[in-house]
Amino acid sequence: MVRIDYIDGRVIAAARALTGMSQKSLADAANISVSTLKRMESTGALGFPGNLPNNVNAVLSVLEKAGIEFIEENGNGQGLRLRK
After folding, report:
1. Contact of 38 with 49, CB cutoff 8 Å
2. What percent of the chain has pLDDT over 90?
3. Residue 64 sits in a domain of what CATH number?
4. What is the distance between the alpha carbons of residues 67 and 19, in angstroms, rounded to a whole number?
């Protein structure tokens, strides 16, 4: 699991798109509202107030179970890939 203060909302949106999940299906699987997910995807770093850690962790967990690997910042920006 990656650190919450690291992940950018745009990376969450990209991960969701890579898995082919809709916002509704990801929100349902993470047991959060679609509006919460929309807010997450439209923000910068997800560790800031307004994004509860348990909600962020739930979304990350669903995406990781769907095959997403989050790549930590290494000087070239955040990233992700789909496991083989």
Report:
1. no
2. 48
3. 1.10.260.40
4. 8
Domain of 41, in residue numbers: 9-72
Residue identified by tokens 């699991």 is 1
> Would you say residue 71 has pLDDT above 70?
yes
> Closest Cα to residue 16, out of 29, 1, 3, 35?
29
> Dihedral through CA 11, CA 17, CA 20, CA 23, nearest 10?
80
The DSSP H or E segment spanning 69 is strand 68-71
For residues 67 and 19, is the Cβ–Cβ distance under 8 A?
A: yes
